[in-house]
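Standup notes
- DV: blocked on the single-chain target, sequence here:
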Amino acid sequence: MAAGCGDGSDGSASTAAVGPEQPQALTAADLIPDLAALGFTKGQSERDPAALPGQDAHRALYQQQAAPQMAARVDITVLPSAADATKQWETLSQAMRNPPPDLFGGNSTQKDTAATNVGDQSKAYVTAKPDTNGAQVWTDVYRFGRAVAVVQVLSRNEAEGQKARTAIAGKILEKAK
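- DV (later): unblocked, structure below
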């Protein structure tokens, strides 16, 4: 995910929650969660092609075919220190407020929404309006010690989307311990 978008002038507050510092041995690929118990099937899972050389970054795409149908994307980067991760989290949490126009298509914009308060830091947004199919995208930016995760859930059902967001963050937290 690009970190260079967003003007950071929205003035919104983020939440800080208690979470563990991540052990040094974990990689971004290690932190990609298994969401089978949540009804998601993992599709593409790869080193993030947009990652800089030497950067530990991985992403995975998931689908849930059974009702309610949902899709999820998890991008995780592990940085050298918690201080570096905090800086990256701050950048991404602001950048995702004003994502590039092609990220969600057309004229989509995001607005603040309640964060799940999982991890050391978390910030959340939702697309301001549903798309033509009635779906919205929830975007959560987390910091787990040295790791920064961006989790996006696409759903037509707000309650189910909220449950998925919380469960996915919990699965990442379990691996980060």
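- Follow-up: Strands lie at 15-16, 41-47, 56-64, 70-78, 110-112, 121-127, 136-144, 147-155.
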